[in-house]
Amino acid sequence: MIDLSTIPSPLVQIVIGLIGVLAFVGLNGLVCVYLERKVAGHIQRRPGPFEVGPHGILQPLADAVKLVAKQMITPKGADPILYWAAPLISFAPAIACFLPLPFGPKLQNVSINVGLILILAFSSLNVLALCLAGWSSQNKWSLLGAARDIAQSVAYEIPLLLSLLPIILLTGSLNLAEITQTQGPWPWQWLVVKQPLAFIIFFVCVFAETNRAPFDLPEAESELTAGFHTEYSGMGFGLFFLAEYSYMVVGCALASILFLGGYQGPVASGWWWFLLKVYALLLVMMWVRWTYPRVRFDQLLNLAWKWFIPLSLLNILITALVVKL
Amino acid sequence: MIGSKLKETFDGVVSLLIGLKITFKNFLKPNLTVHYPRKTVKPEELTGYRGHIELVPKPENPFVPRCIGCGLCRDICPSGCIEVRSKRIAEEKEIHTPHFGLQDTPLDLTRKVAPPQKTKIEIVSFELNYNYCSLCGLCVQNCPAGSLRFSKDIYLASFSSRDFEFDLLKRLEKQAQARLKEEEEWTK
Fold first, then answer.
1. Nearest CB to A43: which of B27, B33, B35?
2. Partner-chain contact A50 B35, CB within 8 Å
3. Full-model pTM
C-alpha cells in the first residue's frame, strides 16, 4: 500500500485519495450486493445468486451493467432539476465521509482534527437528498417515504450523536486517527469494553440512519413500492443504492474506529484488520436485516425518544462523572 | 409500572437474540434448493407435492377406481371443478336357499321378504377442471373410500387451458396399462 502522507502536495494527495475512495465505493457496492444476496439466500436455505459466473459471483456486475444501460426517465410532473439532483446529493457526501477515515496507520486521506464531526455532518446531508427525491418525484409513495425518512432521521440523529459524546469525553479528541491510537490492539483495550451501551445505541442508530431493515420504513417495499426512490430508474436508483451501501460502510467504519480499535489488531495491525472489522459489522447488519420484520412507525419513534435518548444522556452523565473524578 | 416495563423490554431483547440465533443456525445448515436442470427430484421423493388430484385404483383391479360415486368431493369442492357421474346397476347373483342343518325343512315361503337384489355402482365419468382448482385438498381429505390423491406430475405445463381438463378415469386406465406393461417387462 502507498503511504499517503509522503505525497508532497495536499491537492494531489486528495485527488489520489478520492480516486481510491471512488474505486473502493464502487467495488464495495458490488461486494455488498453479492454478500447481501448470499446471506439472504443462505439464511432462507437457498443458494442466492448462482448462475452468473461461478457461484453467481458476476451477478452484481451484470446488475450494474443493466443499471447503467437503462434509460433514465423523468416522470411527468416531476421537478427535473431537483429530481436529478437528489441522487447526486445523496451520493456525493458519502464520498466525502471516506476522506478522514484512517484505513491504516498511514492510510488516511485527510488528517484533520474534526474528522468525526465532518463525517457526522456530511452523512446527515443524506436526509436532504431523500427529502428532495420524495418531494420532486410527484408520487404519493415517494412523498410518504420521504416524510417517514425525515421523521426517522431527525429522531435517530440525536441518540447517534449523544452516544458518541462519551467516546469524545474519554479520548479527548475528534481526530479519528488519535481515537484509534488511544485504544490498544487487544479486544479488552477497545472502547467497546468501557462503553458497551454507547456501542449498542450507536450501532442501532446506524441501522436507522442508513434506512436498513428493521428500520427501512422510508423504502418499505410492501407498503410504499420502493419509498423515496420509486420513480428512479437506471443510475438514478443506482446512485441511491451505492450511497446506501457507502453509508453502511461509513457507519460500520466509524463503529470499528470508535469502539473496536480501528486498524489495530492482536497480530500485525494494518488496514486488513480495519476491513475485517468493517465487513464483520456489515455482515451483522445483513444478518439482522434477514432476521427481523419491519417495525411500526410508532415503535420506531418510541425506541428513539423513549429509550435511546434517555439512555445515552444517562451514559454521558455517568461517563462525565467517571472522567472527572 | 416501571418494573413491568423494564421486564417487557428485557424479554423483548432476549427474544431478539433468540431470533438471531435461529437465523444463524439456518445460515449454517445446507441449502434445500435443488438446482433444477442439473439435478431433479425423483417422483418417490416428492412426498409433500400437491399436483392435480388423481384416482386411486382398487388393490385387486388397477383399472377400477376405489370411488363409490358418493359425490362428496364434487359437493365439497369450493371451486366446483369436479364432475362425477355414476350409475347403479343390478348385480347378477345366484340366489341360493339356505339349509339349516340336517332338518331339511323347506324355507317358509309365506314370509314376505324383499328380493335380495344387490346393486353395484359404476363410475361413468370423473372429470376434473384443473383450471379452477385451488389445491385445497378438501376432496382428498373427505373421500370416504380413499379414492383420491395428489398426483406427482411436477412438469405439468401447457399453453392451452384445454389441456388442464382431465378425464381422471382415462388417466387411471393409462396408468394401469403402463403398470401392466412394466410388470410384463419385469417378468420377462
1. B27
2. yes
3. 0.74
